[in-house]
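Cross-posting from the modeling subforum.

Setting up a comparison between two proteins and wanted a second pair of eyes on the formatting. Protein 1 (sequence, then structure tokens):
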Amino acid sequence: MVEATRILLVDDDPDLRELCSQILMNAGYAVDPVGDGEAALSQLEARSYELGLFDWHLPGLAGRSLLEAVGWRWPELPIVIMTGYSDEDKAVVAVEYAQAYLRKPFEKQQLLDTVGRVIHRMSAMRSGDFPSPGRPQASDADRGSEPTVQTRQAGAVEINPLRCEARIGDSPAVALTATEYAVLNHLFVHPGEVVPHKALARLLSNRPLSAKEAAALCKHHIRALRAKLEPDPARPIYIKTVWGQGYRLLPDGN
């Protein structure tokens, strides 16, 4: 008996997660549904999948950060992104590490057509030994072995999306929680810019927050990041507060 194609479905909306799971299972797929990025990485560690179906906006590890972690560790896994973006340019950014995207809300047949098309295309590429488009490819020497650690650096700040680690200067790398990494990564990709409280809060909460709630939530995670990364957390020089607005990362310090 041929084993069903297995899909990892990641969405923090339980209703949509259940609906998509039922649609895919009724079509003959095996589906493992999870609600956040950390759970997705745990599932990928535990078993093999033929496709990942990921929501772009998740609490904690999400979006580009999640795709980078998955892309470097499991480069052969095709990804379909589910996104609520209405802006075509933003949708293109969402699939930098993916093969396709579904714009919410989507119809049942759109889901099945997109999933089927990506799985068929990737299967044909593998059988024909063609490279998968848009994703980092492991070399022959690396296949089946521990992946090369990939880091990103700006000034004195270095982050590692695979290991969820970061370091500043010559200090040892420290492990971050998924939410801490999500916050730091968002600041990292906007160096020197003021990132508003609400922009950061969207990474941390799946419900809209008031300005006061967003500021309080961000403050907690920024304090944790400073404790791990700043030479003197009481006098931060890299992760700066912009009073009444948000935070910004100064990769070279003051």
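Protein 2 (same layout):
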Amino acid sequence: MGIELVILDFDGTLTDIDKEAIPAVEGWKKDIGNELRLSTPEIDKKWSVAQAKIKENPTNYGWLSDSRIVAPAYADPLVMARTISELLFDEAGVYMDRSERETILQNRFFKRNYDLMRIVFKDEVVGFLGRVCDKFNVCIVTNSETECVAKKVAQLPREYSNIPIHGDAKKYILDLKWEDVPESVDRQGYGRPLFLQRRKYAAILLSLMSNRGLKPDNVVIVGDVYELDLLLPEHLGMHIVLTPRDSTPAFEIEVARTSPLGYVTRSLMEVIAHLESCSD
């Protein structure tokens, strides 16, 4: 038995997240400028300086859970916006209490600006979904809300409502009490631990596999962020395919490329050929 189930990430994998997020990032930048009482030129300058600092050392910055990075800053433009906000809050010496800061970042800035996101699918999506659904069982597992993703999929020119969508996967949430996996692993180029205890994400993956009577070797995960989408499935023995964006660092691409279970391609249609080769 070869590949039986293909699990797709959504944002950044099937969509062009960098184009989608432009108005959301602009809204976020305006919000933090207002919060810090900065003029538009002032927030633009501070934002650019912080972003450049992050890009100089991309492994050092990201979405923080307590003191742990659970997703790199470059994971998507809104994670970058969150990370920049952290640096600007630190510089201003405000919202130093983690719970208060998290409330502002997630419940105010993120939720308010997520609604500004555009819908921009990658050019290959319709052809890719048509072919992959003809050949394999397919589902979507995403951090986004199920209903939100379903509405976006419904706007495609072909009908794909039969693809199961498992939203709110919380791939970024660590459960430190879950001891079925190690706390972390090391990967070349990161210079910091990558954390595995993403229990809710694992529960979704294992349930999808169990319900179909599959083994990890029968499953492929396709995603655009190694640490967030692919690290845990790889540890569980599933095949992984990285679809990097322009912002994906070379070391991340190399980690996925050299994994015994890994493959890297910027083309969704090339994913099909890889899946077929794994099924031979």
